[in-house]
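Re: your question about Nuclear transport factor 2 family protein

S., sorry for the slow reply, the queue was backed up all week. Below is exactly what I fed in.
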Amino acid sequence: MTTRTIEERLDEQESRTSISALVAGYCEGVDHGNLELFLSLWHADAEYLIPGGRGDFRGIEGIRRSQEVISKAWASTKHWTTNHTVAFEGVDVATGRSDCFAVCEHHDGKVSLVSATYVDRYERRAGDWRIAQRLVQRWFVSEGQDTKLLEPF
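Result:
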């Protein structure tokens, strides 16, 4: 067993915190229409891969276009990610996986439920952790359902 220094262990913990902020920032950026935040999460040459007809987006301009595609599909989204795991391949490279549940509102007001897993590659370049690649594996997208607002409690 290799003994790691306190500095190496601290760097890993700080890296985990930075990587977790990327996963949370993704949801915040998409759900709150914060394009500046959303784009800041990705490296300039990153890949955002969404099979099933949504498209593969490469580079910051491609990733910017992904938000136009998403806004055409949904009027609004609310994402919740969980089960986030991170494995370090080196001090500046890590992979991650998280499960996602989303409530997505259609432009006609109907709502679909979406389940997916995000498979990520994170890289630290010039001291900053960012997403190098995100693959979206969707498990289901329900048909749009009518929902009614409940009266406040």
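The two ends are 56 Å apart (CA to CA). The chain has a mean pLDDT of 94.

Happy to talk it through on Thursday.
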